[in-house]
Amino acid sequence: MKTIYFDNNATTKLAPEVFEEMQPYFCDLYGNPSSMHHFGGQVAKKIIEARMRIAKLLGAKSPSEIIFTSCGTESDNAAIIGTLRSYPQKKHIITTKVEHPAVLNTCRYLHQKEGYQVTYLPVDSSGQLDLNELREAITSDTAIVSIMYANNETGVIFPISEIAHIVKEKGAVFHTDAVQAVGKIPFNLQESPIDMLSLSGHKLHAPKGIGALYLKEGTKFEPFLIGGHQELGRRGGTENVASIIGLGKACELASLNIAEEQNKVKTLRDKLENSLLQRVPSTRVNGDRMHRLPNTSNISFEFIEGEAILLLLSDRGIAASSGSACTSGSLEPSHVLRSMGVPFTHAHGSIRFSLSRYTTEEEIATVINELISIVDRLRAISPFGPKNKVSIH
Amino acid sequence: MWNYSEKVMNHFRHPHNVGEIENADAVGEIGNIVCGDALKLSLKIDQKTETILDAKFQTFGCGSAIASSSALTEMIKGKTLDEALKINNQNIAKYLDGLPEEKMHCSVMGMEALEAAINNYRGIQAPEKQVEEGTIICNCFGVTDQKIIRIIKMNNLTTVEQVTNYTKAGGGCGQCKPEIEKILAEVLRKEKEKKKTPPRKMTNLEKIRLIQETLEKEIRPALRADGGNIELVDVDGNTVYVKLTGNCQNCPSMGFTIETFITQKLQRSVNKDLEVKEVKE
């Protein structure tokens, strides 16, 4: 059975072009980029190229603003902890209730173990922030504000440029976890007041285990991973050469494909979403539909539970995610949906579809048809909802 | 992804007895849509013999909730109400070849729906009133101390995490976890005290059963690992006669194995005066 992969916010397929670009750097060109000989030096050149490709995708002023890390989580940790260490007298952090655990749990840890004050900004029912609340929350004690670019579960995009301006006016450092946004929407960081930005390779068709942190020139930063002189002394450890080269290639491809991502992927997503809304009763979309990643749709099917939907989708070769309790690893539905006040009746039956540039029309049609039959089937078992019971065997 | 057994997946993919019995003699409803799972069980009961003639279910929930409900209906059909009441959550999980620990609450839901339906039939209590028994400990999921104590005892639970897995209590905001810990400690303390009181003398039948169980669970797996096996031949007073088969038959270290391993295990589980003798062909 062919897999229909609609879970690209979880991870993505490695682009074949990326794989090809990486291959020589395992068995043949395995030199250490820090070495004095040419064998290592030629690898160092490829890393410079990768750094330039990433800087270009982000619209950064200089490639030296890019620090390679091991993943998005490391980038987030490095940004937050690296900033706090640079401003030891400041003891306040601001973030939101809907962040990824990489930020949320780092902030919780800093509160519990190191006594930092943390403000978690709430979101409204569309998943958006109240910028006045942000403005009022920033004090002279605020070291860093960390707010995600786009939400991994709903795809909702925050007005990051406006947020960054507010934070800078008030004199704090601004970090954004852009793991879900990079590669899907255009960036121009040299025109933006964003100080720091996290990205992750495997969300944009590069391998797992490679990430990057953008650090605007002149931003104060203490290294999170202490060691050698690599990354201009800002992150120790021998470079993950092949993956860095892969990430560079993936960013080059993303630069080329971003228009397609914006149009083709969005068209497919809208088709999936609109068809389901039209054809399946008691269905709703979670999150601000106007300000959203082009590839993400979070849909709730009332009266049924997400894990059951995912299992039946999986039986048909379709991969997606859910914010339901049973799949969140706890007994309560996702913190993002709860923060938005999505009624539990909807939260339990929420499914996230996240597409990629490899998604086809045909796959969309298959998923729509399969999902309609799955929802019917589970609603026939459910004691709730519009009654139209049939017995199934 | 959950590691569900084939049987769970089969009952989930092809649930048995879905629906609602018209003019049902008994209905049991447990859970609600806010909690994330709910089960409505309806029964057709023969008034004279109190036998369950038919059972149907409707479930809102995950794969294992649907599978547990389907399994329950299969297990109770044809049973009398008293027989059905003996089914506990362990039996449901076992019927499905086990459930992941985190999903044990699904089997508890099945057991509770059955009890609610039978109570409903016997006019003991309206099902919705049952929740009020005891004091609510977990506000997120409305779980009472009575339920927590009962499930701890029924399943021999020893950690707060297990209590959450089996009852959902503590799985929301988590504020009640210290309270659950207190209840758990109290139950465990009482159980320990009970064990201290000297056991009454075992009947012969109980003794033989316990010997068989010890052989099955603690001794046979170890021998099998070396390609051997053991059979119980007879029990006479405190003498246990066994026959060793497979690789054990000619194993030079068998004398030692009987003396130390088998005898010690049996003495520990049954009584300290037991003696083990090997029977040869």
Q: Name the chain pair whose interface involves the most residues.
A: A-B, 28 and 31 residues
So how many helices of chain B? 10
Radius of gyration of chain A: 22 Å
Helix- and strand-based class of chain A? alpha/beta
Helicity level of chain A, as a percent range? Answer: 40-55%
The total strand number of chain A stands at 13
Order of helices and strands of chain A: EHHHEHEHEHEHEEEHHEEHEEHHEH
Full CATH superfamily name of the largest domain in chain A: Type I PLP-dependent aspartate aminotransferase-like (Major domain)
Chain-averaged pLDDT of chain B: 88
Helix coverage percent of chain B: 40-55%
CATH class of the largest domain in chain B: Alpha Beta
Q: Alpha-carbon distance between the termini of chain A?
A: 24 Å
Major sheet of chain B: size, sense and barrel closure? 3 strands, antiparallel
CATH class of the largest domain in chain A: Alpha Beta
Please name the CATH topology of the largest domain in chain A. Answer: Aspartate Aminotransferase, domain 2
Poorly predicted regions of chain A are: 387-393
Structure description:
The complex is a heterodimer of chains A (393) and B (281). With 393 residues, chain A is an alpha/beta fold. Helix content of chain A is 41%, strand content 14%. Chain A has 13 helices and 13 strands. In chain A, the strands form 3 sheets. In chain A, strands 2-8-7-6-5-3-4 form a 7-stranded mixed sheet, with helices on both faces. In chain A, helix 7 links the parallel strand 5 and strand 6. The longest helix of chain A has 39 residues. Chain A starts with a strand and ends in a 12-residue tail after the last helix. Chain B is of the alpha+beta class. Chain B has a 3-stranded antiparallel sheet. The longest helix of chain B has 22 residues. Chain B is globular. The chains are: A alpha/beta (393), B alpha+beta (281). Chains A and B meet through helix 10 of A and helix 1, strand 2, strand 3 and helix 2 of B.
